[in-house]
Every structure is written in structure tokens, then in C-alpha cells.
Design goal:
Oligomer: single chain
Order of helices and strands: HHH
Strand content: under 5%
């Protein structure tokens, strides 16, 4: 009975691990594909063009219906900060996995 329970527990571990690895692989693929756009956004946020767009928005020169989250001071900064925190998290995870799993 103990053997059967162990095999069932390990089978559940296999199922959970496979699903998580598959999901992570898909998420990493999407993340990799977004890097070009992310780089353009990062460059824009610190540029004179962003400042001009921001000032024009503040002056009411842009159409009211224009989606303008990119001009909020917090949205892009928060995204850049979240990305950095995610990168640090991934580095820690990879480091831990390499140290403990002997990969």
C-alpha cells in the first residue's frame, strides 16, 4: 500500500511539474517576443519625444479619446520596475535550481 501511495504522489508531482513547465515555457516565449516592444517603450519613456507628448497632453492638444496610458508618469515606470523585479526573481530561481537540482 505504501508503494502505491508513493507512486500516486509522485505521479501527481509529475503532472503538476509538467503543467507548470509547459506554462512557463509559453510565458517565456511571449516575454521574449515582447522584448523588442519593451525596449522601444523604455527608450521612448526617457526621451524628449515622451516629454513633448506629455506636455502636449497636459496642454489639451491631444484628442480626448486617445488612449494615453503611456503618458502617465506611473504606468511605464511601474512596468519597468516590475520587469526588473521579475528578472531578479528569475535569476534567484535559476540560481537556486542550479545549486539544488544539479542541472
Amino acid at each position: 500500500m505504501e508503494q502505491i501511495e508513493r507512486i500516486e504522489r509522485m505521479e501527481a508531482c509529475l503532472d503538476v511539474s509538467e503543467a507548470a513547465i509547459r506554462a512557463l515555457s509559453q510565458a517565456l516565449s511571449a516575454y521574449e517576443e515582447a522584448q523588442e516592444a519593451y525596449g522601444r517603450l523604455s527608450d521612448y519613456y526617457g526621451s524628449d519625444l515622451w516629454m513633448q507628448d506629455y506636455e502636449d497632453d497636459e496642454a489639451g492638444k491631444l484628442p480626448k479619446e486617445l488612449k494615453r496610458g503611456v503618458l502617465s508618469q506611473d504606468a511605464v515606470f511601474d512596468l519597468l520596475t516590475e520587469n526588473r523585479e521579475l528578472l531578479v526573481r528569475m535569476l534567484r530561481l535559476v540560481s537556486h535550481a542550479l545549486e539544488n537540482d544539479g542541472i
